[in-house]
Amino acid sequence: MSKYVTRPFRFGVVCPLTTDLRAWRDRVRRIADSGYSTLLMPDVPGWQPAPGPTLALAAELAEMRVGTWVYASPVRPAWTTAWEAHSLSVLSEGRFEMGIGTGRPGIEDQLRELGLPVVPQGERLAQVRDTVAALRQLDGPDLHTPVVMAVRGPKGQALAAELADTVTFVAMPDDPGVEIAQLARNFRALRDVELALHVPVVGDAVAPFMAPPDTDPVALRAIDSLAILPADPAAATEEIQRRREEIGYSYFVFGAGSADTLAPVVAALAGH
């Protein structure tokens, strides 16, 4: 018998507001109607409106969870981030999840553009810790905003093992699948929490905002990357079940462009 808990499947969609508002609202409702659990927003100025107000609107549009995928600690003061996250929990009646990490690869350029200091990784992790601590204080005894942490190295993993409700591993699409699977297995031995998998490629479609534009689906298939799933719903269903059984992933996050393609998978697996 496995020593790990088999968690039910759930599915999230990264859906930044890049179209006109009416089309985005329609898309949010369609995603909710398809059985996805969570609507997620990236945290990159210039890509879309700020995640806080956008997620508050999304929570009003549809009865689903909303979350950041993910707040970048180097661009956000800890207390104000925690205040925003707590406020989103209150406004969504407990349906908000705070995703947080130390920033995507290449964030140093963005920090310079914004006139913010380029701080070392250790300091960024301290900012994550401070944000979660402030959030717990604001939530008080009657509210628990789930925290999703995006981590990679040993120090980040140790912090996530201490603080996170859900963990996702920061990976480039061209990281071999076996390497990311081993990260997940090693982490579960440390602490058995919900594991989330960022899947930016479905078939030959690469999600903007989730992977570099030059990502090559053929190359990803060649290395059994975990960043890709088949576009065929039956094959995707089988592969998702395998990834839970063999690695421990139960929460899968896709780009909005693939939400309709994978809707039959979500209908079959969500909650099971």
Structural commentary:
The strands form 2 sheets. Strands 1-2-3-5-6-7-8-12 form an 8-stranded parallel barrel, surrounded by 7 helices. Strands 10-9-11 form a 3-stranded mixed beta sheet. It has a single domain (10-269), classed as Luciferase-like domain (TIM Barrel). It is α/β, with parallel strands linked by helices and 272 residues long. The two termini are 19 Å apart. Helix content is 42%, strand content 18%. Helix 5 runs parallel beside helix 6. Helix 3 links the parallel strand 4 (71-72) and strand 5. It has helices at residues 21-33, 51-61, 78-91, 107-113, 121-139, 154-163, 177-190, 217-222, 233-246, 263-269, and strands at 10-14, 38-41, 65-68, 71-72, 96-101, 147-151, 166-169, 194-198, 201-202, 205-206, 228-229, 249-255.
CATH superfamily: Luciferase-like domain
**What are the secondary-structure elements, in order, as H or E?**
EHEHEEHEHHEHEHEEEHEHEH
Shape: globular
Distance between the termini: 19 Å
Outline:
The protein is built from 10 helices and 12 strands. It has helices at 21-33, 51-61, 78-91, 107-113, 121-139, 154-163, 177-190, 217-222, 233-246, 263-269, and strands at 10-14, 38-41, 65-68, 71-72, 96-101, 147-151, 166-169, 194-198, 201-202, 205-206, 228-229, 249-255.
Helices and strands in order, then pairings?
Elements: E1 10-14, H1 21-33, E2 38-41, H2 51-61, E3 65-68, E4 71-72, H3 78-91, E5 96-101, H4 107-113, H5 121-139, E6 147-151, H6 154-163, E7 166-169, H7 177-190, E8 194-198, E9 201-202, E10 205-206, H8 217-222, E11 228-229, H9 233-246, E12 249-255, H10 263-269
Parallel strand pairs: 1-2, 1-12, 2-3, 3-5, 4-5, 5-6, 6-7, 7-8, 8-12, 9-11
Antiparallel strand pairs: 9-10
